[in-house]
Specification:
Elements: H1 2-10, H2 16-45, H3 51-98, H4 101-106, H5 109-151, H6 153-159, H7 163-200, H8 202-207, H9 211-264, H10 269-310, E1 332-341, E2 344-354, E3 359-364, H11 370-375, E4 385-390, E5 393-394, H12 400-405, E6 407-410, H13 421-426, H14 434-443, H15 447-451, H16 470-482, E7 488-492, H17 500-513, E8 518-522, H18 526-529, E9 534-539, E10 542-547, H19 549-555, H20 558-567, H21 574-577
Parallel strand pairs: 3-8, 3-9, 6-7, 7-8
Antiparallel strand pairs: 1-2, 1-4, 4-5, 9-10
Helix pairs in contact: 2-3, 2-5, 2-10, 3-5, 3-10, 5-6, 5-7, 5-10, 6-9, 7-9, 7-10, 9-10, 14-16, 19-20
The protein binds adenosine-5'-triphosphate (ATP).
Length: about 575
Amino acid sequence: MKKILKYISKYWTSYIIPIMFMVFGIALDMLNPKITGMFIDDVIKDGQYHLTTKLLIGILGIAFSRSIFMYIKEYRFDKTSSLISRDLKKDLFNHIQSLSFSYFDKKNTGELMSRVDSDVDRIWETIGFGLALFIENILYFIIASICLFSISWKLTLIALIPMPFLALVAIKLEKEIDQTFEDISDNTSEMNTIAQENLAGVRLVKAFAREKYELSKFFNFNKKNHDLSIKKFKVFGKYFPLFDFLSNICILLVIIIGGIFVIQGSLSVGELVQFNLYAWMIIWPMRMLGWLSNMIAQANASSKKIFKIMDTEPEIKNKINAIELKDMKGHIKFNNVSFKYDDEEILKGVNLDIAPGSTVAIMGSTGSGKSTLTNLIGRYYDVTEGSVTIDGFNVKDLHLNTLRSQMAVVPQDVFLFSDSIEENIKFACESATLKDVESACEKACAKNFIESLEDKYDTVIGERGIGLSGGQKQRLSIARALINDSKILILDDSTSALDMDTEFQLLKNIYDHCAHMTTIIIAHRISAVKNADMIVIMEDGNIAEQGNHASLIAKGGKYYDIYREQFKDLGLCEEEVV
Ligand SMILES: Nc1ncnc2c1ncn2[C@@H]1O[C@H](COP(=O)(O)OP(=O)(O)OP(=O)(O)O)[C@@H](O)[C@H]1O
């Protein structure tokens, strides 16, 4: 909560006006019991009927002015809390963006969505409605207590007897409900994850007829949510009647003791009624303590979750005085590189020298570490041992933005935004024109199919490219990588869904038009790699073979085995393929 207070303190001046209007409104409210008292003592008891109109106009005027003051107060409080929640959401989102790949490997989208959305909203509710209620309660309590003391200090002390007990009940409630709100917050995020994954993978669920299984998973969390809500209401059910009971005791004491004072003549009937009305003004804040405890507990649970993310340091960040390597040549070197995911060793002492402007193809069995190797170039992960250098500079010393902005990566798992084709491609280069988009699409062999669509480049594609074939999605993501004239291009198994002809043409375009780029192609088909300057065969986290097509065929090793396997059915002789 301390960290939330830091956000609130930034806007403390914005609270001056609403608090001022709150004070005006409360001050006016304090006049009502006084007028009621005068009505009883002066009009009814003493027969001063001429005062009736004045008193009624007073009540009306108070009601009218108070509603204006309270409107301004409400509006300004809500506005300020919206600004605070906007800042919090912005900072949280910014921070999430700064976190490294390894963080997202362990977190799921649903959980992060819950933090950015519902947890921030819960805090927004508390600092909007809750904070206003809290300040209002304190002001009512102080001002009403002063009025009570001015009528009868003895009766006031008696009326205040149940107050410490009420405060104790509020503290106990807050403590008891705190853990329940944390559990609700955790369960909500897990439920969001299930819902988000189920909806994103709805086609897979239907294809395997797993609707029942998915529903039961969701229902389990939904039931847990229901049980936690019941638990929450049970706690409320235990404490809320106590708030009512203790506040009624207060009124009972006022009526009994105040009645005795009236009989003894030390208090008039009008004053007793007036006192009773003021007493309600201090009881009401006490009754609201339950709601406030509830809100504080919710906000506390949410802020713990939010600040756990905010306190996570990105594993990969810029060094102080990081080098801005502006005009990269694209000379990549792996120097005895080892890499571990947690404790699992994936790469084991890899040495590889990739000349600037060359094309390197990486082949190897699944899980042999091909993607991992390329992930180290843009520092998506840091090497465990050894170093990766670009143009002689250790990537750890380079400024992340300048490094990554000179690289174009087409990941294995194609991701497209639910936006137009043009916007999806321009994602990599905001300043690109439609002509640039067309040219990139031409190189990626996507131009023909895009231009056959009714809305061409304005065609809006569904979430993750729904509505397009696998090969079309791959070509769009390659076009997105080609729009930027990057120095390093990495294609991670990005042509696997293309037919041989299209793949051949696309790679030819890359060889012809992107000769200045250092290109790394991860692929499984000989047809995709045979023209590369160097072919690297990965096996179990290390380089088993490297060389060009001809030398590897001549060597008769692993590459040759793959080659024979892929071409055996075609009955081509080696010379024909080579
Ligand atoms: N984020 C990760 N966290 C933990 N382990 C991972 C992670 N990514 C990959 N691995 C593991 O690292 C190993 C190498 O994975 P990598 O993706 O580099 O293989 P690959 O050769 O590219 O495989 P494929 O051809 O199937 O894409 C695998 O055993 C994989 O399970």
